[in-house]
Every structure is written in structure tokens, then in C-alpha cells.
């Protein structure tokens, strides 16, 4: 990989890296409180690399869950990574086996969103995509390690994690607004999430809203293409 690959990757991923620092620190503290030591937390971040799974593991350990139960839940929670990795195969042609394994292992939700947007709308390469993965991977892993060390010395309120998560996902959402249709789908998802949350009073409302908004976006996309309101060029679909 060339220096320019790293620089190009850093230019688009640095907001996520910044948000990973407080998230990773909080994750390290939570895991330390659950009974993990700093070295174990670093190893977990390097081997699992799943923020949601690591927070879940900390919670399950605190509740006395068995190791097989934690492994099983982590497996199902991270199944989405299979879909994300598979969807990248259309952009990365004929990669070597080591590249495929490492790229898939270091691919997270945030790096997937950034890479997908870069491949669709910019000149992007496999090496640049991998640089994004690695930068996120290292930032998260070492942030959790430092968090464990800090957690062993001080007791710190991790409430800020809620606001950091929201800010990070707003940033990722805005970066996807490359056409009027994308903006429409994003706003539709937001409205549906509010409506279903009020009606159901359960977090499943967010999943339902996301699925319905995706389906509405698909139907709108098909309608626009059928009625020739979009043009398809060499770089993909251009919405008028």
C-alpha cells in the first residue's frame, strides 16, 4: 500500500476515528468493570472487533452468562458482517485470499458505509478501502486498551457514549445524501422511526422503520427508472 492510499483513507474516515476514541475508552472501562483485564480487552478488540458485541459481552458477563452463550450471541449479532463483506466483492476484483480474510475481519459498520459511498461516487481502490478498515481497527482496539487502563485507575461516567454514537451515525447518514432519492429515504426512515417508537414503545420500532424505508426507497427507485426520470451512465444511476 502506498502513502497516498493511507492519506486518502484518512481524509474520509477521520470523523469516525475521532468518535471511536471516546467510544473505545468507554468500552474498555465497561469491560474492565465486568472483570476483563487490559490485555484481554485488547485481544478481544483485535480478534472480535465488534463494538456492539463487546458491550453485549460485558453486560452478559456481569449477569453471569456462560461463555458458550456469549459466543453464540456474538455470532448472531455479527452475522451482518457477512452481508457487508459480500457486498464489497462487487467493487474489489480478484483479491488474494490473505487480503480477503483481513479486509473482511477489519470491516465494521462505519468503514463499510464510508467505503460503499466512496466506491459508488468516487474513484476508489481496494487498497484505499483497506486503509480505512485498518485505521478504524487500530483506533478502536487501542482506545479500548487505554480505556481499560483508565478504568483501572479512575471511575468515570460513560453517559457521553450516547451522544457520541448519535453524532457519529448522523455524520455517516449525511455522507450518504448523494441524491434527492437518498434524502427522501433518509427522512422517511426518520419519520417512521418516530411514529413506530410512539406506537410500539420498543426499540424494535427502529428495525421496522429501517426495513420499511428501504422497501419504499426500492419502490421509488424502480418507479423513477421505469418512468425514465433517471439516466444510467458509466458511473451508475443519475437522479434528475
What does this structure look like?
About 75% of the residues lie in helices and about 5% in strands. Helix 1 packs antiparallel against helix 9, helix 2 runs antiparallel to helix 8 (about 125-155) and helix 3 (about 50-60) packs antiparallel against helix 4 (about 65-75). Strand 1 (about 230-235) and strand 2 form a beta hairpin. It has a two-stranded antiparallel ribbon with strand order 1-2. The protein is built from 11 helices and 2 strands, in the order H-H-H-H-H-H-H-H-H-H-H-E-E. The protein is mainly alpha-helical. The chain starts with a helix and ends with a strand. The radius of gyration is 20 Å and the shape is globular. The longest helix has about 30 residues, at about 5-35.
* Proportion of strand residues: under 5%
What gyration radius follows from the Cα positions, in whole Å?
20 Å
Separation of the first and last Cα atoms: 38 Å
Got a strand count?
Answer: 2
Order of strands across the main sheet: 1-2
Amino acid at each position: 500500500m502506498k502513502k497516498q492510499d493511507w492519506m486518502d483513507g484518512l481524509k474520509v474516515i477521520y470523523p469516525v476515528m475521532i468518535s471511536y476514541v471516546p467510544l473505545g475508552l468507554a468500552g474498555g472501562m465497561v469491560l474492565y468493570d465486568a472483570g476483563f483485564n487490559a490485555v484481554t480487552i485488547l485481544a478481544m478488540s483485535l480478534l472480535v472487533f465488534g463494538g456492539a458485541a463487546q458491550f453485549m459481552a460485558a453486560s452478559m458477563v456481569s449477569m453471569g452468562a456462560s461463555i458458550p452463550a456469549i459466543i453464540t450471541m456474538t455470532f448472531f449479532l455479527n452475522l451482518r458482517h457477512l452481508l457487508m463483506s459480500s457486498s464489497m466483492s462487487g467493487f474489489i476484483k480478484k483479491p488474494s485470499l490473505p487480503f480477503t480474510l483481513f479486509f473482511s475481519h477489519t470491516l465494521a459498520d462505519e468503514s463499510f458505509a464510508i467505503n460503499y459511498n466512496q466506491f459508488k461516487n468516487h474513484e476508489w481502490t481496494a487498497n484505499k478501502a483497506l486503509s480505512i478498515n485498518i485505521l478504524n481497527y487500530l483506533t478502536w482496539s487501542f482506545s479500548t486498551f487505554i480505556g481499560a487502563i483508565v478504568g483501572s485507575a479512575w471511575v468515570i461516567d460513560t453517559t457521553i457514549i450516547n451522544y457520541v454514537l448519535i453524532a457519529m451515525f448522523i455524520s455517516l447518514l449525511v455522507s450518504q445524501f448523494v441524491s434527492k432519492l437518498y434524502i427522501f429515504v433518509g427522512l422517511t426512515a426518520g419519520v417512521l422511526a418516530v411514529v413506530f417508537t410512539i406506537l410500539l414503545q420498543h426499540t424494535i420500532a427502529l428495525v421496522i422503520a429501517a426495513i420499511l424505508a428501504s422497501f419504499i426507497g426500492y419502490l421509488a427507485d424502480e418507479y423513477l427508472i421505469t418512468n425514465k426520470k433517471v439516466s444510467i451512465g458509466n458511473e451508475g444511476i443519475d437522479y434528475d
